[in-house]
Specification:
By secondary structure, the protein is α+β, with helices and mostly antiparallel strands. It is built from 2 helices and 6 strands; from the N terminus they run βαββαβββ. The relative contact order is 0.25. The protein binds zinc ion (3 copies).
Length: about 100
């Protein structure tokens, strides 16, 4: 649904289903944003970038000092994000701890 599906049928559990696929409003594909807006404002540096698949905003990853992507989820409830730093495309649901894969790459 909406261009993304769960990467594994039985992870983290056979009966666990990500209910957030329906909230995805941004199709797979790179976002033109190349910076975390919150890092720019605070003068911090990110490690990698993640894009919110609900509103399309780009913020930094869990390994970044300020974890703005996680903060965005905490503030907005937007649970699903996608890698924005190149390589194989993948997504993640913060709430379910569930890896996601685009339907087409
Ligand atoms: Zn979910
Ligand atoms: Zn940041
Ligand atoms: Zn968002």
């Amino acid at each position: 649904m909406n261009g993304w599906h769960e990467t594994y049928n039985d992870y983290p559990g056979p009966d666990v289903v990500c209910g957030h696929l329906a909230t995805i409003a941004v199709p797979p594909g790179p976002d033109p944003a190349v910076a975390c807006v919150d890092c720019l404002r605070e003068g911090t540096m990110w490690v990698e970038l993640r894009r919110c698949l609900v509103c399309g905003e780009t913020r930094c990853c869990e390994s970044s000092p300020r974890r703005h992507g996680r903060a965005h989820y905490d503030q907005t409830g937007h649970a699903v994000i996608a890698n924005q730093s190149g390589g194989e495309p993948w997504g993640w649901c913060y709430e379910d701890g569930m890896p996601l894969t685009p339907d087409v790459s």
